[in-house]
Design goal:
Blueprint: H1 3-14, H2 18-25, H3 30-39, H4 42-51, H5 54-63, H6 66-75, H7 78-87, H8 90-99, H9 102-110, H10 114-124, E1 142-143, H11 148-158, E2 167-171, E3 177-182, H12 183-188, E4 205-206, H13 211-220, E5 225-229, E6 235-240, H14 241-259, H15 274-301, H16 303-308, H17 316-340, H18 348-378, H19 380-410, H20 420-443
Parallel strand pairs: 1-2, 4-5
Antiparallel strand pairs: 2-3, 5-6
Keywords: CBS domain, Cell membrane, Magnesium, Membrane, Metal-binding, Transmembrane, Transmembrane helix, Transport
Family: Belongs to the SLC41A transporter family.
Subunit structure: Homodimer.
Length: 445
């Protein structure tokens, strides 16, 4: 985005020169216009949005994050709001309604056409976090008894209001899914051939399945659309690849934020109020501060040991830092493997054994370096303490870091919650205990 042009737009807004602002904004393409809207305060965002041509405004609205859509609706007139909500796809509309106050959401639903109300109600009927909540009920379904010519006509009749026509589900007489046909195959086949002869087996997902699991499957199978069925294999919607990408992006953002000890912002950073950023971090910091008291308590318990050999305190940051980093590496690796489906909760034994071996090898490398480096400067007894501690801490940290995400998954808790911050706190305290016990044994303290 052209910084100088953006500054001229902001200056035009301050001076209420709306004609100048409109001319500048229209010099950009849709992506830059959306980026500008995301960076503006709510009041200015509404002004700039009203200056966009109707078609451009509708496209820009769909691209905004859901919280920003909600803020924009509160700043627009009722007529504009109803038009925007009506133009959204049912799955996008449900996400927007979830962001709005209940009374506002009900009022917007009432103004929708009966057909749009039914489609929206179908999606809203599924639990939050399920693929049913993210699917689109607007699809073109073919009857297996159709000829290819009839199928083409059915696609053309719905081409303007369907979410996608590149992957076409085929239903039997009871509206159960019996296969899928690609648009390319449909166009390349003789018109008199029956659709039943060209369909292929469909990969499906049940509507109550987790949205992230369904999105991952859509990505793994490289599907343009994943059919969503109910408990009787009747088709209720489709998850398109772009919606699957949105789900995976949200999951990735959530995992990254929680691994770093914060809650996801769920909106662009520059448009997030400072208070919201503080709220996303403060709870985690308080929890970690309470956890850090374990480290303080350990130091109090071994205070006498430190007084006898003050040099031991010099290496505390090295040891707890190494342990925390080792545990974080293991947790990040296993959490990612969980997301990709490479490991499952039942693999906890195999993962623990593997990470124990990884930790032992890492600890042997670091411990040897610690033994030689510290031994040459502070004496071989102190070097032995540091080497053995590094070996033990690496084994402990890698094992705990690898197991904790699997335990979280078994408890149906987000694995990222049990990741880096909590592992660091745990390893800090346990690593110090190991350190002082080894020092007491080797040095006779």
């Amino acid at each position: 985005m052209d910084t100088s042009l953006r500054e001229r737009i902001r200056a035009g807004l301050r001076q209420h020169d709306l004609e100048e602002v409109r001319d500048r904004v229209l010099q950009w393409g849709l992506a830059e216009q959306v980026d500008l809207l995301e960076r503006l305060p709510p009041s200015e965002r509404a002004v700039v949005y009203r200056l966009l041509p109707r078609e451009t405004a509708s496209q820009a609205f769909v691209r905004l994050d859901t919280p920003l859509q909600g803020e924009l609706l509160t700043a627009l007139r009722n007529g504009e709001v109803h038009d925007l909500v009506a133009e959204l796809d049912p799955d996008d509309r449900v996400r927007l309604l979830d962001e709005l106050p209940a009374d506002v959401a009900r009022a917007l639903l009432v103004d929708l056409s009966p057909q749009e109300q039914d489609a929206t109600g179908l999606v809203m009927g599924y639990p939050a976090g399920s693929v049913g909540r993210r699917m689109s009920p607007e699809f073109v379904a073919l009857d297996r008894r159709m000829s290819v010519d009839q199928a083409r006509a059915a696609v053309l009749a719905r081409i303007d209001d369907a979410e996608t026509v590149y992957a076409l589900p085929v239903l039997d007489e009871q509206r159960r899914l019996c296969g899928i046909v690609g648009l390319r195959r449909l166009l390349a086949t003789d018109g008199s051939a029956p659709v039943a002869d060209i369909l292929r087996e469909a990969v499906t997902v049940e509507a109550h399945a987790p949205a992230e699991e369904a999105a991952r499957r859509c990505a793994d199978e490289k599907l343009l659309a994943l059919p969503v069925v109910d408990g009787t294999d009747r088709l209720v919607g489709i998850l398109t690849f772009d919606d699957a990408l949105d789900v995976l992006e949200e999951a990735e953002s959530e995992d990254v934020a929680r691994s770093g000890g914060a809650e996801p912002l769920r909106r662009p950073y520059l448009s997030t109020p400072v208070r919201s950023i503080v709220r996303s971090r403060v709870v985690w910091l308080l929890v970690l501060a309470v956890g850090a008291t374990l480290t303080v308590r350990v130091l109090e318990v071994f205070e006498a040991t430190l007084e006898q050999m003050v040099v031991l305190s010099v290496f505390i940051p090295l040891l707890i830092g190494t342990g925390g980093n080792t545990g974080n590496q293991a947790a990040t690796t296993v959490t990612r493997a969980l997301a990709l489906g490479d490991v499952r909760a039942r693999d906890v034994g195999r993962v623990a054994f593997r990470e124990m071996r990884v930790g032992a090898l890492l600890g042997a490398c670091l411990g040897t370096a610690g033994l030689l480096g510290v031994g040459l400067v502070y004496g071989w007894e102190v070097g032995t303490v540091i080497g053995l501690t590094l070996l033990t801490v690496c084994v402990l940290a890698a094992t705990v870091g690898g197991v904790m995400p699997l335990v979280a998954r078994a408890l149906k808790v987000d694995p990222a919650v049990f990741s880096n911050p909590f592992i660091t706190t745990f390893v800090d305290a346990s690593g110090l205990v190991v350190y002082f016990l080894i020092a007491s044994a080797v040095l006779g303290l």
